[in-house]
Amino acid sequence: MSVLPIRIAGDPVLRQKAKKVRTIDDDLRRLIDDMVDTMHNAPGVGLAAPQVDVSLRVVVIETPDEGLMALINPEIVKKSGVRHLTEGCLSVPGFQGVVPRSKQVTVKALDRDGKEVRIKAVDSLLAQALEHEIDHINGILYIDHLAPGDELIPTRPSVDDPEPADAEVAPAER
């Protein structure tokens, strides 16, 4: 297993709609394992394949309450409610923004063995992470959800942060 380089905002792969996974095999499971290692190393709550330069519809998410999950070809089948949450992203290091996210999200996907799963998340970190990571495989970054005039909030720099907190990241065009 390996830690992969994470693509940063401005990289074209982050703006492409990822391809549907047609075959679940050992290569795909190895990618999932590498994505988990990369997410843990970052550290982060979720990671989508385009963030490691693989344009496939694969995401990994780990939350304290629900544990680790790998989702293949995930899609939101139902969402409701709105809440405004502070959100960051491994591909937009050093910044956060307040974005609207659904209170309730239902997702269908395949697990790493090809079994269909359905996940319902209500008013939780998992609900937020599901929307965030599924946005990634659709070529959307959280900064695209900022309201006109909203600015990114610099996070406190840490010793391990590869980017200075004062780096400029402009919200995407609307």
Give a verbal description of the structure:
- The chain is of the alpha+beta class.
- It contains two helices and eight strands, in the order H-E-E-E-E-E-E-E-H-E.
- Strand 6 and strand 7 (116-122) form a beta hairpin.
- The longest helix is centred in the N-terminal third of the chain and has 16 residues, at 26-41.
- The radius of gyration is 15 Å and the shape is globular.
- The relative contact order is 0.19.
- Mean pLDDT is 91; it is low at 161-174.
Q: Mean pLDDT, as a whole number?
A: 91
Termini distance?
Answer: 38 Å
Q: For the record, what is the CATH homologous superfamily label? A: Peptide deformylase
Main β-sheet, spatial strand arrangement: 1-2-3-6-7
User: Which structural class is indicated by helix and strand composition?
Assistant: alpha+beta
What portion of residues is helical?
10-25%
User: What is the C-level CATH assignment?
Assistant: Alpha Beta
Summarize the structure.
The protein is an alpha+beta fold and 174 residues long. It is built from 2 helices and 8 strands; from the N terminus they run H-E-E-E-E-E-E-E-H-E. The longest helix is centred in the first third of the chain and has 16 residues.
List the helices and strands and how they pair.
Layout: H1 26-41, E1 46-48, E2 58-63, E3 67-80, E4 83-88, E5 95-101, E6 104-110, E7 116-122, H2 125-137, E8 153-154
Antiparallel strand pairs: 1-2, 2-3, 3-6, 4-5, 5-8, 6-7
Keywords summarizing the entry:
2 helices; 5-stranded antiparallel β-sheet; 174 residues; alpha+beta; 8 strands; disordered C terminus; Peptide Deformylase
